[in-house]
Amino acid sequence: MNNDNNNVATKGRAIALLPIGVFLVLFLGMGIVTGDFYKTPAIVCFLIALFVAFMQNRKVKFGEKLQIIAKGVGDENIITMCLIFLCAGAFSGTVSASGGVESTVNLGLSVLPAPFAVAGLFIIGCFISVSMGTSVGTVAALTPIAVEISNKTGFNMAICVGAVMCGAMFGDNLSMISDTTIAAVKTQGCNMKDKFKENFLIVLPAAVITLIIFLLLTRNGNFEVAGDLDYNFWKVVPYLFVLIGALIGINVFIVLIGGTVLSLIVGVATGAFPLSDVFVVMGDGVVGMYDITVISIIVACIVSLVKEYGGIQFVLNVIRKGIKGQRGAEIGIAGLALVVDACTANNTVAIVMAGPIAKEISDENGIDPKRSASLLDIFSSVGQGMIPYGAQLLTAATLASLSPVEIMSYLYYPVLMAVSALAFILFRRRGQKG
User: What is the pLDDT of residue 434?
Assistant: First the structure.
């Protein structure tokens, strides 16, 4: 038994990856058959994959397999990640119920010069997505505004919605309370503040160039938004608290709990909801994070068994053949994140799945955890922001009555983000891990 384990640890076993293959076949297959990649719950496919993992390797007794997955789920990073997901959900629920999203949007639009309408949508999208931590939520909040601006200015509706999509993916990749950031940081074992700084330097050129492109394309536009643009600055304060608190390095739990409390106070004080509903709005937000929390737990179970059977070692051996130094390792991590996201259509799930393998690659090649976390987050977001069957593009297309393909022509930021990240990989001076 010990000799078999040592052999597996050295060579790895391709068959150990079968559960992951089963998930991809089920998830992608049902998406192709039904034409809707979100009709089949990912959790069901993961549970079937877990069952397959349990059926493998009869040399390991059932009781031992339970111990293996219990150890994997009980990992400090997995537990912390799940708790952060729930806290982020509570904040998202309370700040939305208090009217923070609407006030933030109206605040931006009320001071927006006419020639900068589309570029302004991108900027507002960046701010809201960084503050909210959700790209889908940002798309849902801003797309109706983008449609109105298109109608008023005559700009192609696809470019207006494309600006919203670009801004949404900016924050999805950077926000301290984004589930992708949380997953990337916890799987790689680094601090959020460090990851943010590393990540921000990489994507800043892409964001600046994207802004310039939108300015040039729409510089001759003119518009006047009809309707009420009233806002309450106090409703924006919770967003500012979370953003500033996270940037200066306050513990993420304190930031999220503090932001939630502020949102509750603002919501009750402004009459957005009664005092008796404070737990209801919190609960609604927490419930919204149940899926990704449970998926993270099930994926941890699957990865634990796959690793025990030699699957991760097999992947490492395959990737290792094409890796030459840190640059090769970083490109390997980038490619891994991009491919897994394209297969799962969920960048958080992609990071949770690819995270353990990326961690092994980074440890073996002396890559700083904050850099591997950034690469995971960046390239999973690149994929998620461009695939026509992703939740972000599907939501935007539905709200704007467009085809996802029409919007894809204006997704400058995800493309430039990939280019910028590759440039950093290829040309940035190598450093020691730490």
Answer: 42
